[in-house]
Design goal:
The chain is an alpha/beta fold. Among the domains are: 2-79, no CATH class; 82-113 and 152-286, no CATH class; 289-389, Helix Hairpins (Orthogonal Bundle), CATH 1.10.287.70; 404-540, NAD(P)-binding Rossmann-like Domain (Rossmann fold, 3-Layer(aba) Sandwich); 593-727, Alpha-Beta Plaits. The chain is built from 44 helices and 30 strands. The strands form nine sheets. Strands 5-4-3-6-7-8 form a six-stranded parallel beta sheet. Strand 16, helix 31 and strand 17 (817-821) form a beta-alpha-beta unit. It comes from Hipposideros armiger. One of its GO terms (molecular function) is large conductance calcium-activated potassium channel activity. Residues 402-544, 779-923 form the RCK N-terminal domain. This is Calcium-activated potassium channel subunit alpha-1.
């Protein structure tokens, strides 16, 4: 301390001037947190000569003096030793560089010398090759082996070192991460020490931070050695940034221990290690995307450069310039230097902090060039990457006790809103499912607002299901299901299907057990799903083919108009809208509120037949049961629709119900005969205290999803839960009449027995010219107007024809199908149609009235308008222009009220596509061909009497009939275009599709109504099976697999098993004007009709097709009808109602056909005439029926006989081509309005069979 004081005294000599200098030094040292002992023990007796003699060396002495403390002994001279620390680094760097260069030089010289010597030896070997003995070569070989062994040892060590520092192994990754962590730790120690003087005396044994720093640097030294050994090029390794960092940080630590003093020096270079931060995160598998790697790279380079430059400014500014004897230093903290560098890089330059030293200013001159460039390029890019960072890029956190589903595919505002509206509908009871949407495009503002409105149950994440990382983010492995939405309006349906199939492949590849429900646009693309090994429809995987279902719905409307609307409303969730006014909307909306549900039947129903249970549910429980799930003896499950009275219910039978609420369906499960037998109010039927079956003890029944119950551990596949047949299984044993008709040499049906089949026909054989079509006298047929060309996407017309060719129709019941459209397009579709009978093609355009008249569109049972060009137009309002124009064109046409006299040749004309040689087409002598009855006003009823030897009588009625009365269904793409179909309705353009008049009447169908099937299938996969069974005519997974193999139906011989498949229900319409239910048609109750039809004929009624103005007291000429779904028991019927019913297959209808009369005396003579389809004789005349009808009809018949003209006609079953007589009765307007606007009862109802009353 005395020495220190002496130093201070010498510096403070020189009187007042020296004192001033001492004061300045004291202030600088204090600013740097130094402990300065400015001793004043130097006496004033110091001579001025001494002061003057030392004045020349005073600045130099000040540069070498350092402050000391009481605790740390220091050099007696108090000199700075910064040069020693710097010299250790420089010597290490340049010394090592010199050694490497020297080694390379010597190695090069040695290689050159050895190369020259090798050439000499090689020349000697060439000269002495043959004379040299084998023994002389042994020493050379031994030497080569020794060199090889040495090289091998060196290589092993090098490989070991490379493995140790490589991130490819666990050890290497741990070592790399540890080195980085310790580097950051050393940088933190530097930050702490930066508050101390640049150079100070410290005791290594007492300074804790110095000890930690020493330990870190020892580790760095060892790691440096490993890197040096593993390096292939030692020179480049020596010049690496990390090596330079080690040179200037590791040696000074050892010098500080030796000198007992510390120098901050270049320890700030440790900040350069931050550049490797992104690599470390990649080693740890934290950074996976290119954007995140790039962002971390930019940030690490920017921050490391910033901190390193701030460390250099801190060093030179606190030390001063060496050539100024360190007198121009200034006290700056490290963080003030950080601030100075940021202000400098940003070109702001406030001036509050600046560099005073020449070194500092010179560094700032060069740094501002590079720093400004880096700031100007890096910062905007960093901000852009942060700004572009996915807002929805997080991960889903599963909630305990709550399921979640993943929805992907075509995510738009329309598709999401439709899906959520149906999925989260209040009628579904409590939906404890969270919906996770995954899409690679962030939502727009409208879609984002929709997600926020449902934030409690909906989450959105940005990503792709094709990326396994994104699948992991949404926890697909724990999801209850994955739903894939398709773009129904895309221009290329095949490409859209391919995209969805790839999504299925990606999801199944990631988690094969996940349940997937996907939408498909084209039917033929469903076959590709069968190629996925983990695709299993038995485990809940489903493909909802929009084209298949859309055309199936339209086909069913050809058999029973309005059915498409009813079925679409059944699987869509609609809230009940109450209307007080007595309008058609009131009754329609009451039916719209009904949906389809499933529930297990109570044990009280065990042993009862299906009709009995169905009647009990309808009358007492106010539920309509239409089907049950049936499991055969080999555990195969299938759905039986209205199976009939031979089926007895057993425990655990699953029933399909139509009801307005899920809670209502629980009555079927809770019903107890002992407790609820005398209850009249169905709302009071709740769970009672009686002992339940074990099957239901531990689990609350689910009205939403038996499939969900199965996934939750239910006993859906329990052997005790399958219903059994008490006597025989009609699905396996055909009737005797079928067995008698089996012909092993004729293929009438496809190999599954589900569809009528014929040998493939060339398209040229079914093409009709316009004149040929006019001579054919088509009636009771289906006209399909289709727009398309050679470049249009295929619609898949097979899905339209298959339901119309179902085997539960007899051959003579099949309606002839005539396609009107471009022959180029139909040629592309023909490959899938050439196996179906009774199909013809008229090349032309649906906009040509001549083509429409040629196919007798006014006499058709249904006109279907389709377009294959709808998705090629960007403007949604114009997507349906062709269909709308065709519809308006047909409605504006005018027709005569009869066929007219046809100028046919004496041999008649058989339409193309109807093979006379086919046994299926053979006529039945003396039987009646099925009449064609259209429902439009003033369109005549055509009765054809097949009496050999008689000539037909044809009369002409000159009354006019407009095309508005032609039954028509138009396919639409855009829902809002429905307003253009009916010019006389008052629908608002913003009205939802199901509320519009064309949809309620069944004259318009849009594919958007099928969106609800996604959520309906998720909650209950049996619903989709039931819908497909109803609308496709009997398509099964086995049939789909067959079509996938051959792309066509394969003909099969009739066997008991295939014929048994014909015995299944079909949908029909029952008229109330005549027949056994005529007494109920005038003011009767719907419930009485329901019970009578069920008990007597095993027919299950489920809706009404009513005239729109039937509720009006005044007569109306409007023939539009609307759908009423599941009306209540007390609902009043009117005579013009048509009843939707599920009727049984009639084995006898194919063997005997008698004449059909529509006059008032048909009830008296019906016992002698059987219908060509199914006829039921009337048991009672309707009260208050006008008595003048019988006499009036007799007069009309007499008048027609006098006016009759004879003409030959050939049957449509052309085996023997018997001539037939046609008797055309021109009807009065009154009779046409009352009779011809709906199909006759006698054409739909099987003969009366007394059925045992089991109620």
């Amino acid at each position: 301390m005395a020495n220190g004081g002496g130093g201070g005294g010498s510096s403070g000599g020189g009187g007042g001037g020296g004192g001033g200098s001492s004061l300045r030094m004291s202030s600088n040292i204090h600013a740097n947190h130094l402990s300065l002992d400015a001793s004043s023990s130097s006496s004033s007796s110091s001579s001025s000569s001494s002061s003057s003699s030392s004045s020349v060396h005073e600045p130099k002495m000040d540069a070498l003096i350092i402050p000391v403390t009481m605790e740390v002994p220091c050099d007696s001279r108090g000199q700075r030793m910064w040069w020693a620390f710097l010299a250790s680094s420089m010597v290490t760097f340049f010394g090592g560089l010199f050694i490497i260069l020297l080694w390379r030089t010597l190695k090069y010289l040695w290689t050159v010398c050895c190369h020259c010597g090798g050439k000499t030896k090689e020349a000697q070997k060439i000269n002495n090759g043959s004379s040299q003995a084998d023994g002389t070569l042994k020493p050379v070989d031994e030497k080569e082996e020794t060199v090889a062994a040495e090289v091998g040892w060196m290589t092993s060590v090098k490989d070991w070192a490379g493995v140790m520092i490589s991130a490819q192994t666990l050890t290497g990754r741990v070592l790399v991460v540890l080195v980085f962590a310790l580097s950051i730790g050393a940088l933190v120690i530097y930050f702490i020490d930066s508050s101390n003087p640049i150079e100070s005396c410290q005791n290594f044994y007492k300074d804790f931070t110095l000890q930690i720093d020493m330990a870190f640097n020892v580790f760095f030294l060892l790691y440096f050695g490993l890197r040096f050994i593993a390096a292939n090029d030692k020179l480049w390794f020596w010049l690496e940034v990390n090596s330079v960092v080690d040179f200037f940080t590791v040696p000074p630590v050892f010098v500080s221990v030796y000198l007992n003093r510390s120098w901050l020096g270049l320890r700030f270079l440790r900040a350069l290690r931050l550049i490797q931060f992104s690599e470390i995160l990649q080693f740890l598998n934290i950074l996976k995307t290119s954007n995140s790697i790039k962002l971390v790279n930019l940030l690490s380079i920017f921050i490391s450069t910033w901190l390193t430059a701030a460390g250099f400014i801190h060093l030179v500014e606190n030390s001063g310039d060496p050539w100024e004897n360190f007198q121009n230093n200034q006290a700056l903290t490290y963080w003030e230097c950080v601030y100075l560098l940021m202000v400098t890089m940003s070109t702001v330059g406030y001036g509050d902090v600046y560099a005073k030293t020449t070194l500092g200013r010179l560094f700032m001159v060069f740094f501002i060039l590079g720093g400004l460039a880096m700031f100007a390029s890096y910062v905007p890019e960093i901000i852009e990457l942060i700004g572009n960072r996915k807002k929805y890029g997080g991960s889903y956190s599963a909630v305990s006790g709550r399921k979640h589903i993943v929805v992907c595919g075509h995510i738009t505002l329309e598709s999401v809103s439709n899906f959520l509206k149906d999925f989260l509908h209040k009628d579904r009871d409590d939906v404890n499912v969270e919906i996770v949407f995954l899409h690679n495009i962030s939502p727009n503002l409208e879609l984002e607002a929709l997600f926020k409105r449902h934030f409690t149950q909906v989450e959105f994440y940005q990503g792709s299901v094709l990326n396994p990382h994104d699948l992991a983010r949404v926890k697909i492995e724990s999801a209850d299901a994955c739903l894939i939405l398709a773009n129904k309006y895309c221009a290329d349906p095949d490409a859209e299907d391919a995209s969805n199939i790839m999504r299925v492949i990606s999801i199944k590849n990631y988690h094969p057990k996940i349940r997937i429900i996907t939408q498909m646009l084209q039917y033929h693309n469903k076959a590709h799903l069968l190629n996925i090994p983990s695709w299993n429809w038995k485990e809940g995987d489903d493909a909802i083919c929009l084209a298949e279902l859309k055309l199936g719905f339209i086909a069913q409307s050809c058999l029973a108009q309005g059915l498409s609307t009813m079925l679409a409303n059944l699987f869509s969730m609609r809230s009940f809208i109450k209307i007080e006014e007595d309008t058609w909307q009131k009754y329609y909306l009451e039916g719209v509120s009904n949906e389809m549900y499933t529930e297990y039947l109570s044990s009280a129903f065990v042993g009862l037949s299906f009709p009995t249970v169905c009647e009990l549910c309808f009358v007492k429980l106010k539920l309509l049961m239409i089907a049950i799930e049936y499991k055969s003896a080999n555990r195969e499950s299938r759905i039986l629709i209205n199976p009939g009275n031979h089926l007895k219910i057993q425990e655990g039978t699953l029933g399909f119900f139509i009801a307005s609420d899920a809670k209502e369906v629980k009555r079927a499960f809770f019903y107890c005969k002992a407790c609820h037998d005398d209850i009249t109010d169905p709302k009071r039927i709740k769970k009672c205290g009686c002992k339940r079956l074990i099957y239901f003890e531990d689990e609350q029944p689910s009205t939403l999803s038996p499939k969900k119950k199965q996934r939750n551990g239910g006993m859906r596949n329990s052997p005790s839960s399958s219903p059994k047949l008490m006597r025989h299984d009609p699905l396996l044993i055909p009737g005797n009449d079928q067995i008698d008709n089996m012909d092993s040499n004729v293929k009438k049906y496809d190999s599954t027995g589900m569809f009528h089949w014929c040998a493939p026909k060339a398209i040229e054989k079914v093409i009709l010219t316009r004149s040929e079509a006019a001579m054919t006298v088509l009636s009771g047929h289906v006209v399909v107007c289709i727009f398309g060309d050679v470049s249009s996407a295929l619609i898949g017309l097979r899905n339209l024809v298959m339901p119309l060719r179902a085997s539960n129709f007899h051959y003579h019941e099949l309606k002839h199908i005539v396609f009107v459209g471009s022959i180029e397009y139909l040629k592309r579709e023909w490959e899938t149609l050439h196996n179906f009978p009774k199909v013809s093609i008229l090349p032309g355009t649906p906009l040509s009235r001549a083509d429409l008249r040629a196919v007798n569109i006014n006499l058709c049972d249904m006109c279907v308008i389709l377009s294959a060009n709808q998705n090629n137009i960007d403007d949604t309002s114009l997507q349906d222009k062709e269909c709308i124009l065709a519809s308006l064109n047909i409605k504006s046409m005018q027709f005569d009220d009869s066929i007219g006299v046809l100028q046919a040749n004496s041999q008649g004309f058989t339409p193309p596509g109807m093979d006379r040689s086919s046994p299926d087409n053979s006529p039945v002598h003396g039987m009646l061909r099925q009449p064609s009855i259209t429902t439009g006003v003033n369109i005549p009823i055509i009765t054809e009497l097949a009496k050999p030897g008689k000539l037909p009588l044809v009369s002409v009625n000159q009354e006019k009939n407009s095309g508005t009365h032609i039954l028509m269904i138009t396919e639409l793409v855009n829902d809002t275009n429905v307003q253009f179909l009916d010019q006389d309705d008052d629908d608002d353009p913003d009205t939802e599709l199901y509320l519009t008049q064309p949809f309620a009447c069944g004259t318009a169908f849009a594919v958007s109504v099928l969106d609800s099937l996604m959520s309906a299938t998720y909650f209950n996969d049996n619903i989709l099976t039931l819908i497909r069974t109803l609308v496709t005519g009997g398509a099964t997974p086995e049939l789909e697999a067959l079509i996938a193999e051959e792309n066509a139906l394969r003909g099969g011989y009739s066997t008991p098993q295939t014929l048994a498949n014909r015995d299944r229900c079909r949908v029909a319409q029952l008229a109330l004007l005549d027949g056994p239910f005529a007494d109920l048609g005038d003011g009767g109750c719907y419930g009485d009709l329901f019970c009578k039809a069920l008990k007597t004929y095993n027919m299950l009624c489920f809706g009404i097709y009513r005239l729109r103005d039937a509720h009006l007291s005044t007569p109306s000429q409007c023939t539009k009808r609307y759908v009423i779904t599941n009306p209540p028991y007390e609902f009043e019927l009117v005579p013009t109602d048509l009843i939707f019913c599920l009727m049984q297959f009639d084995h006898n209808a194919g063997q005997s056909r008698a004449s059909l009369s529509h006059s008032s005396h048909s009830s008296q003579s019906s016992s002698k005439k059987s219908s060509s389809v199914h006829s039921i004789p009337s048991t009672a005349n309707r009260p208050n029926r006008p008595k003048s009808r019988e006499s009036r009809d007799k007069q009309n018949a007499t008048r027609m006989n006098r006016m009759g003209q004879e003409k030959k006609w050939f049957t449509d079953e052309p085996d023997n081509a018997y001539p037939r007589n046609i008797q055309i009765k021109p009807m009065s307007t009154h009779m046409a309005n009352q009779i011809n606007q709906y199909k006759s009862t006698s054409s739909l109802i099987p003969p009366i069979r007394e059925v045992e009353d089991e109620c």
